[in-house]
Write a structure and sequence with these properties.
The protein has a single domain (3-195), classed as Alpha-Beta Complex (Spore Coat Polysaccharide Biosynthesis Protein SpsA, Chain A), CATH 3.90.550. The chain has helices at 30-38, 75-86, 104-112, 140-148, 168-174, 187-197; strands at 3-8, 24-25, 28-29, 42-49, 64-68, 91-96, 119-124, 127-128, 132-136, 163-166. The protein has six helices and ten strands. 28% of the residues lie in helices and 23% in strands. It is α/β, with parallel strands linked by helices and 204 residues long. The strands form two sheets. Strands 1, 4, 5, 6, 7, 8, 9 and 10 form an eight-stranded mixed sheet that branches. It has a two-stranded antiparallel sheet with strand order 2-3.
Amino acid sequence: MEINSIILAGGKSLRLGHDKVLEKVGNTSLLEQVISRIDTLSKEIIIVTAKERIFTELVLHPKVKIVPDIFPGQGSLGGIYTGLVESNSFYNLVVAADMPFLSRPLLSYMIDVSDGYDFVVPKFKDWFEPLHAIYSRNCIGPIESIINQGRRVIIDLIHYVNVRYIEPEEMDRFDPQRLSFFNINTRDDLERARQIAGGASNPC
């Protein structure tokens, strides 16, 4: 199945105090790490960002399209909406720009099982990871409705569309350490990511 990927890069990085997606992990930035993990899975890569942000190093990337957030101030939900509106693919992989250890096999599996569903999302007990998920364009209307109700909770989407949960045993088949879901919010997170990237535990 050919799909597009949407990377959410509109966060303000308040806890780090500067633009975290340009921080280096290994030899490349967080954003470039994420792109490298999803490139072979994607027909096009849409980076949703704030209007004032320009990633000049990605301008010549053949698959990358950088778009401004349609709903600034609405958090990740607005970014997902923007990416889906801008995408010409029915199915879309959505990830955050600060997840450097995405597992291609796990993402590929999620893509493979998405046919017939609108929202494919990892779930463990009461925990969900909607920024490591597959969304169909059928989610556009429900997301707009949630935003117009003044809500910003992505997981509210499960009440409006056909959902496929990725269960723990499915995640663990491809990523037993669950490093796919490791994201960077603090300086300690960044240092841990650099340690992982330099060690044998770095997943493919």
